[in-house]
Structures are given as structure tokens and as C-alpha cells.
Description:
Elements: H1 11-32, H2 47-50, H3 57-66
Amino acid sequence: xxxxxxxxxxxxxxxxxxxxxxxxxxxxxxxxxxxxxxxxxxxxxxxxxxxxxxxxxxxxxxxxxxx
Length: 67
């Protein structure tokens, strides 16, 4: 997983990465929020949000979205 250059990231890789890191978080929150106190969610991302590695561009984009 991971592409060296932006133009090498397939739509399938981009989709899979966002479904894993962003969609999953959305659906987890959607299920959990009704059972939680306000302000209970804390997001953590990755150093790749601030310092993306060229081979992890799709992954880094999801970490920026979380941040």
C-alpha cells in the first residue's frame, strides 16, 4: 500500500484508505455519540498529518482530515 507519487495513487487505493480511516471513524462516532457526554471525543492523528511521507500520500490525507 502507498504510492510514490500523487499520480500513481489509484482511485481504489484512495477509496480504500478513506473508507478505512475516515468512514470507519464517522460510523463509529455515529454509533457512540448517543451514549456519550458532550466533549467526550478526542481525535488522534499521526505525524503524517504534519509531515507526510511521499509513499503515504493517501494515508496522510486521511490523517489531515482527522486532525
